[in-house]
Description:
With 180 residues, the chain is an alpha+beta fold. It folds into 2 domains: 3-84, GIY-YIG endonuclease (3-Layer(aba) Sandwich), CATH 3.40.1440; 89-179. Helix content is 57%, strand content 14%. It has 6 helices and 4 strands. The chain has helices spanning 22-29, 43-53, 69-81, 89-113, 118-139, 156-179, and strands at 3-10, 13-19, 33-40, 64-65. A hairpin with a 2-residue loop joins strand 1 and strand 2 (13-19). The longest helix has 25 residues, at 89-113. It is rod-shaped. The chain crosses the membrane at residues 93-114, 126-147, 159-177. Residues 8-79 form the Bacteriophage T5 Orf172 DNA-binding domain. InterPro entries: Phage_T5_Orf172_DNA-bd. Keywords: Membrane, Transmembrane, Transmembrane helix, Ubiquinone.
Amino acid sequence: MSGYVYLIRVGDLYRIGKTENLEKKIKKLKPDELLTSIMTKEPETLEARLLRKYKSQRIPETGYLKLSKRQIRECKKQFELKGNLPHTLDAEVSITLFASFLLFSLSSVIFNYLNFGFVKSISYSFGMASLPMIMLFITGSFGGYFSEDLSLFSLLTNRIKGLFIAIAMLSMAYLIFNLG
């Protein structure tokens, strides 16, 4: 469900939150300033990401944060970057599959150019194409999300998907290599 993620200032404290109706929320909270906001399809993802990143600045028993000027600039950048990131974790796997396809195509052309033979070049290409999936399995991310501040979203399901797809690609490489 789409909604807004916002960053507000109240005195020298800041608050990150999500809402479906930004105007109503601002009237309720009565902040000194609305620093930035963004409408997104999945506000929970961005809000959780930002709250996790700044959890050490959180004031206990409140929803407010004590942020430095540098952290405020960083936080605002995250709002700007949101449009460049995948909207879902499944998009992460799609990006990785696309990278695998590109690597397969490129390595296939290179191996054919080097006269490895058609069957062997396809086999080696499947092996090369499994590298992005192996990276997804190891890190839980393929660059769409910064996993160091988002371990919550470096989900086991992404790692398992990456592992199984890598195993399938390596199995294809092995079978094709042995057939040739």
